[in-house]
């Protein structure tokens, strides 16, 4: 796949005001973004994702490392690189509230050096696509939060840039508008051949929209993988087995030896095994132990895990790895 | 062509905002007129009656230039502060045209639009006082153009400082009195002030409007000073602006709210 953004060895440190101590907000971050994909840039608060986004947008100068956007090194040719990227960083705060919907679109197009004639058709299309046509003469401060958010994305689209960066695109939106924005973003990639980078805490949105995620914690990348791979990786191993009786001591000891992470809970007439398998085939070892005393299996459930849980696990494991 | 599109977009925005914030705009004009009335009353009440006419004429020119200086130089500082608070400054900084070009077009468009207000204020002041000044457009225009370029330079310095400093409001409030001082000081009192951004320009316009001096009477050395000031301050303003922009981009100060 064709790469449109290459981030290599990005570093950024800040000096704390009071203690004068250096904080490594971003520490040697490298990843690529493919043309036509939706990439999720995730991380807990203070992980360094906003700093990374702002460096990609050319709003923050990195201490070291490089950012290449569509073949242009943004540190050397910042303005040229900005022709290929646009962003919605603060949602509705990126707009002029005392201008109308259409005036905002006109103004931001002009600010990129485009004439009204050049963008007239595009503005009309965007107003229709984003269902803002009826509100085009309405002041932005009179629009709902959802409409403001849609307008902010439309403004970013207007730039004709190949890459659009969105920071929390569904924050504060009601469920219906949230889904509407998701559909819009999907169509932007599919119909308009754009590439989107999303930073969000809404894991539902990430799971639904993103092809791949880069998870950052404490300024470092902890995971860079496809969403489906992460889901598969975590889901395939998690099983809940309900037994129609209790395990014998021998069986219990045997299982604990093979699966130290095993969780065994008992009820009066049945018991439950919760187990994370390293390999799918290990389930046969489990069955062998159960067969020893013909223990009746009532049900086997593969635990469903959503992306939020995966995210929490990855970040937790990353934190434990750092402290350990 | 990109420049022209940029200028058109910013002129339209400035015009819309001036119109949409009409009560604010009118209040500003009325306040300025009230200040002028205060100056006029002061000259009439406690001024030397033998020099009253000339003092009033001086007051009109100085006060009009003070207003111009405020509109051109101080306004850009307020605009930057407001944009940073609103969250739109980052969007401006992401324009491939470069934020400095946006600022140039903002300075030009706000000057052109405010010029209409300034001309209206000038005629109202002349009407109020009954002192009719010499409005020799051909002589005033080149002086004004060169003076405005140096004012734009100072505007850029203020814009740069406003990007870096969060609490710039107090500085901007003090600055308006410094600007008043510079427009009111006659060059005969402090000849070296000719090399300050706009003092020479104000002095020459005073000569034209009050003493009826024409372009042929103004020596080339005066235009040389004006030209030097225009280039020097505009270049210095840009350098300071770029320097401040870089500091802001290093420290992440483009969105301080």
How does this model look, in words?
The complex is a heterodimer of chains A (324) and B (257). In chain A, a hairpin with a 2-residue loop joins strand 9 and strand 10. Chain A has 324 residues and is α/β, with parallel strands linked by helices. In chain A, the strands form three sheets. A six-stranded mixed beta sheet of chain A has the order 6-7-8-3-9-10, with helices on both faces. In chain A, strands 2-1-4-5 form a four-stranded antiparallel beta sheet. A four-stranded antiparallel beta sheet of chain A has the order 12-13-11-14, with no helix packed on it. In chain A, helix 3 packs across helix 4, helix 5 (145-158) packs parallel to helix 6 and helix 9 (249-258) packs antiparallel against helix 10. Chain A has helices at 49-56, 78-82, 101-111, 116-129, 145-158, 175-192, 203-209, 227-235, 249-258, 282-292, 307-323; strands at 3-15, 22-34, 38-42, 64-69, 72-73, 85-88, 163-167, 195-199, 212-217, 220-226, 238-243, 263-266, 271-276, 297-302. The radius of gyration of chain A is 25 Å and the shape is elongated. Chain A has eleven helices and 14 strands. By secondary structure, chain B is mainly alpha-helical. Chain B has one domain (2-251). Helix content of chain B is 79%, strand content 0%. Chain B is built from nine helices and no strands. The radius of gyration of chain B is 19 Å and the shape is globular. The model of chain B has no long low-confidence stretch (mean pLDDT 88). The interface between A and B is large, with 37 and 35 residues.
């Amino acid at each position: 796949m064709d790469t449109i953004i290459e981030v290599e060895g990005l570093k950024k440190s800040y000096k704390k005001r009071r203690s004068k101590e250096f904080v490594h907000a971003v520490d040697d971050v490298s990843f690529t973004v493919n043309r036509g994909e939706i990439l999720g840039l995730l991380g807990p608060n203070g992980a360094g994702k906003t700093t990374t986004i702002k460096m990609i947008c050319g709003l923050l100068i990195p201490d070291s490392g490089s950012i290449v956007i569509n073949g242009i090194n943004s540190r050397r040719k910042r303005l040229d690189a900005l022709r290929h990227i646009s962003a919605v960083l603060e949602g509705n705060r990126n707009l002029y509230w005392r201008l109308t919907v259409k005036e905002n679109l006109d103004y931001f197009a002009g600010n990129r050096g485009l004439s009204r004639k050049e963008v007239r058709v595009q503005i009309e299309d965007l107003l229709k696509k984003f269902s803002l046509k009826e509100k085009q003469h309405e002041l932005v401060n009179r629009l709902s939060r959802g409409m403001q958010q849609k307008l902010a994305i439309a403004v970013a689209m207007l730039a004709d840039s190949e890459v659009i960066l969105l920071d929390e695109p569904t924050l504060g939106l009601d469920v219906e508008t949230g889904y509407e924005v998701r559909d819009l973003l999907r169509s932007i990639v599919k119909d308009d051949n754009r590439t989107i980078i999303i930073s969000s805490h809404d894991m539902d949105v990430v799971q639904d929209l993103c092809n791949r995620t880069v998870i950052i914690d404490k300024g470092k990348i902890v995971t860079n993988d496809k969403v489906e791979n992460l889901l598969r990786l975590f889901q395939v191993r998690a099983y809940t087995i309900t037994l129609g009786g209790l395990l014998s001591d021998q069986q219990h000891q045997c299982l604990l030896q093979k699966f130290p992470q095993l969780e065994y809970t008992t009820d009066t007439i049945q018991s439950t095994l919760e187990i994370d398998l390293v390999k799918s085939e290990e389930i046969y070892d489990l069955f062998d132990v159960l067969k020893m005393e013909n223990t009746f299996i009532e049900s086997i459930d593969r635990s469903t895990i959503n992306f939020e849980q995966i995210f929490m696990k990855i970040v937790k494991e990353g934190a434990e790895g750092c402290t350990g | 062509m990109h420049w022209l599109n940029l200028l058109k977009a910013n002129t339209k925005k400035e015009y819309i905002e001036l119109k949409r914030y009409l009560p604010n705009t009118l209040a500003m004009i009325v306040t300025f007129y009230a200040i002028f009335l205060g100056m006029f009353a002061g000259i009439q009440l406690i001024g030397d009656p033998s020099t009253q006419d000339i003092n009033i004429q001086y007051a009109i020119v100085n006060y009009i230039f003070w207003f111009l200086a405020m509109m051109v130089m101080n306004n850009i500082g307020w605009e930057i502060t407001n944009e940073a608070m609103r969250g739109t400054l980052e969007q401006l900084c992401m324009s491939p045209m470069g934020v400095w070009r946006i600022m140039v077009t903002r300075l030009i468009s706000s000057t052109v639009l405010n010029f209409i207000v300034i001309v209206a204020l000038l005629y109202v002041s002349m009407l109020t006082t009954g002192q009719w000044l010499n409005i020799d457009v051909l002589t005033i225009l080149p002086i004004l153009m060169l003076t405005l370029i140096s004012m734009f330079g100072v505007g850029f310095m203020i814009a740069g400082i406003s990007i870096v400093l969060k609490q710039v409001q107090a500085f901007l409030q003090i600055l308006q009195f410094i600007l008043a001082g510079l427009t009111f000081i006659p060059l005969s009192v402090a000849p070296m002030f000719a090399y300050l951004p706009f003092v020479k320009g104000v002095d020459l316009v005073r000569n034209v409007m009050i003493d009826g001096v024409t372009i042929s009477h103004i020596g080339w050395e005066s235009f040389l000073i004006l030209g030097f000031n225009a280039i020097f301050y505009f270049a210095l303003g840009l350098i300071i602006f770029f320097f401040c922009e870089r500091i802001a981009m290093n420290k992440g100060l483009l969105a301080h709210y």
